[in-house]
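call fold target=Alkyl hydroperoxide reductase AhpD
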Amino acid sequence: MSIDNLKNAIPEYAKDLKLNLGSLARSTELNEQQLWGTLLASAAATRNATVLKEVSEEAADTLSADAYNAALGASSIMGMNNVAYRAKSFLGDDYAQVRMGLRMNIIGNPGVDKTDFELWSLAVSTINGCHDCTAAHAKVVRDAGLTKEQVWEAVKVAATLQGVAQAITNAEILGGVSV
């Protein structure tokens, strides 16, 4: 099981992340597609090859091909949008009405349930630190009927995978060295 491989790669000093990952992989708040799409989109957003490889292998066994591609699509499009929307916010009111001018067709037609795609986009936006996108996607999924507990579960998945990626990167750089 690939989540187990990932847990085994986490250094002992990051044991809390290993425990969190184990419990989140058995989430009861999200359905299977929501959970595994959130795991995959978040893994891609961490930009850590080990995390993405391990999560993607298990996600491929769980998600349909359309859902798998949509989760990766959510990560990719949010990688672009989070930068653009943060910049608009940084630049202030003069840029509020500026046309974005970037193609985002996948948001309108993701190939899966729109609420699931929006949930995955929320998780990625959380990792990427885009306040406006995180809030906007949270509103969309709440308006579609997801509970605050489901939204928070997706945030916990994103936060945990980002922490796991950091711990694994540290271990790869340090070669397992600890003091």
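return ok
Residues 2-174 form a domain with the AhpD-like fold (CATH 1.20.1290.10). The mean pLDDT is 94.
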